[in-house]
Amino acid sequence: MKVHKIKLDAFLEDEPSVFAIHTDAEDYRLAFDLNRNLKIKLTRCKKDLDFNYIDASFAWFVWEDVKHYTDWSLITNKCLTEVPHKFSSGTLFEEATDKQAVLRYLIPELKNVDYILKINGLEDENAATHIVKNLQKISTIKTAYIIEKQLKSIQNLIT
Predict the structure, then answer these.
(1) What is the phi/psi pair of residue 5, to 5°?
(2) Which residue among 1, 67, 98, 154 sits deepest, i.e. has the most Cβ atoms within 10 Å of its Cβ?
(3) CB 57 within 8 A of CB 156
(4) Which DSSP state fits 15?
């Protein structure tokens, strides 16, 4: 019997354009500013992007641009969670439990990035450059740039 192999690459879309955004703004404020300045319509998803294995959920905003065949996603890169912190009280049977705040990252390689903007379906590099210029004009954004390096945890952005 002959074995048939299907290459997965044939079914995958082009790689998305991924942008890093540095800002102190809350997620809803950033989405509002992006909508107003880029003339897009990001809306908050009913469910956050959850990762049970790291006990974290990240705010997620999406918009499907039917006219230009693009999909936009704005995702927070940082999540502050509380985890139980156990420490011994010095006795054999008692154990005191306290909560400890832990900062989790969607993309651990980019710990200094506050938000990730992912766009599937951009035509060319000029469109990405134009978007970066428009992002940098927004007053609540400190800086924005295209992430060009290969990320180890890119699978976290597959939504």
Answers:
(1) -115, 135
(2) 154
(3) no
(4) P
Q: CA–CA separation, 80 vs 144, rounded Å?
A: 22
Q: How far is Cα 50 from Cα 57, in angstroms, rounded to an integer?
A: 4
In a domain, 3, yes or no: no
| Domain that residue 85 falls in | 14-157
Count of domains forming the chain:
1
Tell me the pLDDT tens digit for each residue of 122-152: 888 899 999 999 999 999 999 999 988 766 6
The contacts of residue 153 (CB under 8 Å, 6+ apart) are 106, 107, 108, 109
Tell me, yes or no, whether 143 lies in a domain.
yes
Confirm if 61 and 31 have CB atoms less than 8 A apart: yes
pTM of the full structure? 0.78
